[in-house]
Amino acid sequence: MGVTDLSFHRTTASLVTNMLEAMGFEVERIFSPHQDNFEKLKSGQVDMLSSAWLPSSHGIYKADVEEVEPLVELGLHYEPYALWGIPNYVPQEAISEVADLLKPEVVAKMNAQIQGINPGAGITRFSIEMMKEYGLSDAGYEFFTGTEDDCFRAFEDAVAKQEWVVVPLWKPQFLHYRYDIREIKDPKGLLGIVDRAVLLLREDKKKLFTEEQLQTLDSLRFSNDIIAELDYKVCREGKPQDEVTRNWLIEKGLL
């Protein structure tokens, strides 16, 4: 199983892995950045991928794979979307939409560094476009790519100091479980749409599964809030990933 190497993708893949192991499969998880993950699916290095965000964030990568091999979509793990957020202590009247970041009084208070994650992520592509289309670079803001930890720590450090800060984020993500993050409106619609997070299986690997097993995988339903909570338990409470997800599946009667 190819797993996009971000914490909430690892959490979702862990849930699926527990289900597959209960079916009797041995699962090897291969962790890669977004685009690399789809390349491995295309070459057959991995049989399935957890999770693809369709159609907005990862649709272009899926289409590239399907030039070689059709893909089967299974389940609806959650309904993700990209967002720009600010801590809720920043007054609503000061900032409610992206253009408000250009107000002189906001520029004076806001941290000018907007820390993102890796270049292949949908939120990164969207954010780079937003910097240009809203004229934020001209106002002195800078967008940086980096690791997910760079992004999350920049936000948490700013909150600890009660600084005004913008975080390019998405749901589900564990910060939402811990912090009150207010989404700012994007009237230009540059942040994409609400996607469907699904398990992708190469058509030529369907034969590994019975129809009943495929139906079980297709029936999996989680949610943004569930993934955020499980993600938080792993990333900030330090609990073992597979144990956290296995306990949840048992609690819900799925295992």
Write a concise synopsis of the structure shown.
By secondary structure, the protein is α/β, with parallel strands linked by helices. The protein contains ten helices and ten strands. The chain folds into two domains: 2-80 and 194-251, Periplasmic binding protein-like II (D-Maltodextrin-Binding Protein, domain 2, 3-Layer(aba) Sandwich), CATH 3.40.190.10; 81-183, 3-Layer(aba) Sandwich (D-Maltodextrin-Binding Protein, domain 2).
Spell out the helices and strands N to C: EHEHEHEEHEHEHEHEEHHH
If strands are numbered along the chain, what order do they take across the biggest sheet? 2-1-3-10-4
Q: Helical proportion?
A: 25-40%
Summed up, the domain count is: 2
Taking pLDDT < 50 over at least 5 consecutive residues as the criterion, the unreliable ranges are none
CATH level 3 topology of the largest domain: D-Maltodextrin-Binding Protein, domain 2
- Report the span from N to C terminus: 20 Å
Number of strands: 10
> Count of helices?
10
Please tell me the CATH architecture of the largest domain by its name.
3-Layer(aba) Sandwich
Cα radius of gyration in angstroms? 19 Å
Share of residues in strands: 15-25%
Overview of the molecule:
- It is a single chain.
- By secondary structure, the protein is α/β, with parallel strands linked by helices.
- The chain folds into two domains: 2-80 and 194-251, D-Maltodextrin-Binding Protein, domain 2 (3-Layer(aba) Sandwich), CATH 3.40.190; 81-183, 3-Layer(aba) Sandwich (D-Maltodextrin-Binding Protein, domain 2), CATH 3.40.190.100.
- The protein is built from ten helices and ten strands.
- The strands form three sheets. A five-stranded mixed sheet has the order 2-1-3-10-4, sandwiched between helices.
- Helix 1 (7-22) crosses helix 9 (224-235).
- It is globular, with a radius of gyration of 19 Å.
- The model has no long low-confidence stretch (mean pLDDT 96).
